[in-house]
Amino acid sequence: MTMTINPIQAFLHANRLLLTGRLRFSRARLGERVTPPDGRSYTIFRQATVSPAGGQPDRAGVVFEVQFHPAGMSAAANKWFSLLPMPFCVGCPGFRSKLWAVNESTGECAGIYEWDTPQDAEAYAASFAMRFSKGRSRPGTFSYRITPGEAAR
């Protein structure tokens, strides 16, 4: 059974993480190209990482990759628009990190997340934030996959 994520709690938790300094936005990987297994290429334009409360987790995480093409919006507009659902993502239980990426020539977008557990990733896949992303995507372009392992921070 997949747990349900409460958007209000996620928003409040994201703000707590930001105010306590546990939510960090790094510039280290901005401009770096990433190529998921399907061979498409994207450029990272934002990176967020949450520092664990008690140090590093003692278990490997899982990677959640999502790809989509926003409907009715340019890649540049989507970069700004992607700020709106951010608190509903980073404030979710088990969130570790996310890379936001775009293919400027095609307008396709990708997100590469790291979660504590497969259950956390599945809960996010069923969340308000993912339904919102899917709803604003061109039909047939939204896909995601969950794999064991840790995303490169």
Please provide a written account of the structure:
The protein has 153 residues and is an alpha+beta fold. The chain has a single domain, classed as Alpha-Beta Plaits (2-Layer Sandwich). The protein is 27% helix and 27% strand. It contains 5 helices and 7 strands; from the N terminus they run H-E-E-E-E-H-H-E-E-H-H-E. The chain has helices at residues 7-19, 75-81, 86-90, 118-125, 128-135; strands at 23-25, 33-34, 42-50, 62-68, 95-102, 109-115, 143-148. Strands 1, 2, 3, 4, 5, 6 and 7 form a 7-stranded antiparallel beta sheet that branches. Strand 2 and strand 3 (42-50) form a beta hairpin. The longest helix is centred in the N-terminal third of the chain and has 13 residues, at 7-19. The protein is globular, with a radius of gyration of 15 Å. The model has no long low-confidence stretch (mean pLDDT 89).
Q: How many strand segments? A: 7
Proportion of helical residues: 25-40%
- Give the number of domains: 1
Evaluate the radius of gyration.
15 Å
Question: Would you tell me the structural class of the helices and strands?
Answer: alpha+beta
CATH class category label: Alpha Beta
- What is the terminal-to-terminal distance? 29 Å
The pLDDT mean sits at 89
Topology pattern, helix = H, strand = E: HEEEEHHEEHHE
* CATH topology title: Alpha-Beta Plaits
Which architecture does the CATH hierarchy give at level 2? 2-Layer Sandwich
Low-confidence stretches: none
Query: What can be said about the biggest beta sheet?
Result: 7 strands, antiparallel
How big a fraction of the residues is strand? Answer: 25-35%
Shape: globular
Task: Please tally the helical runs, counting DSSP H or I stretches of 4 or more residues.
Answer: 5
